[in-house]
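Budget justification note: compute hours in this period were largely spent on complex prediction jobs such as the one shown. Inputs:
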Amino acid sequence: MPAPFLLAAGVGSALLVVWFARRLNIADREGHPVHLAWHALFSYWPWLLKEIAVSAWQVCRIVLDPKLPVSPTLVRFKPSQITDVGLVTHANSITLTPGTISVEVSRDEFLVHALTREGAAGVRRGGEMDKRVRALESRPELFP
Amino acid sequence: MFAAAAIALLVTAALALARAAIGPTVFDRLQAANTIGTCAMLLVAVMGFLNGRPEFLDLAIIYGLLNVIGMVAVLKFFRQGKLGEADE
Amino acid sequence: MLLDLFSDLASWACLLAGSFFCIVGGIGLLRMPDFYTRVHAASLTDTLGAGLILLGLLLQAGFTLVGAKLLMIALLIFFASPTASHALTRAALVRGLAPKLAPPLADPLETPPSKP
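Corresponding output:
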């Protein structure tokens, strides 16, 4: 019996908060591009999960190696994305993969810290991740 | 098997706590605190399953949200206020 | 009932693998030489460790409200943990904490491109 009441109260308070946020002009007018997310669910996310698993295994082997073979490297490169969502997705994916962190993010330049030289060679303009996020973004409905 | 995961999470939290104790810079300590927070969140979830009370998951969600917000808040204060120096 | 046994086994394997990655992340947090490399080790705990443990719990819960909550936690970690790492490293760099870098390779053709 209380479940419908609780759910209704939750929906009601969420709508109230959204209404307040819009009145205060702090809501994101752009909104989340759901069509992008749906498309990405089948093309980009599985690839990203695979990538996370592979690089996590590599970092794991580095940590457990008695010699600790790290060669930390800073890389600068210019991302090829145009939209904010694309840039954020790219930066978030870089950080999410163990072994690389995006330190500085701007429209013109990414500064990436990588645990090894090989990892640093993987992130660059025209690299696999860059291309995939770019392809994700170049859906026609994003550019009205 | 839940018990094994819980013990592993406790061990991880203990390792992070050691880093928080010795870590030379403030950022090391913050990173360790973040890891401890993640471990605590997972631990709450696993303990809920271990005791057969999955309602604990609500607590885990709240804990995760507070962890992130607390992290960002501390960093913001740290960058704008004058809270200690990052002694090398 | 065979299906139950199978999902139980899969969930136990996920829990054990997740625990393993969590502990390795913790060890890395202690062993790595400087702050920036420690963040790499900690992201091991945040991504694969947390993800596998949550997947193991999800296999136990099945398609229920509990499973939906577990998915919410996974999404929260998925979006929030990179944000926290990024904010942390950026704050450290702005604050002037210099990363220990590996010496550049002797052969310039083998160095990763620093400028596009």
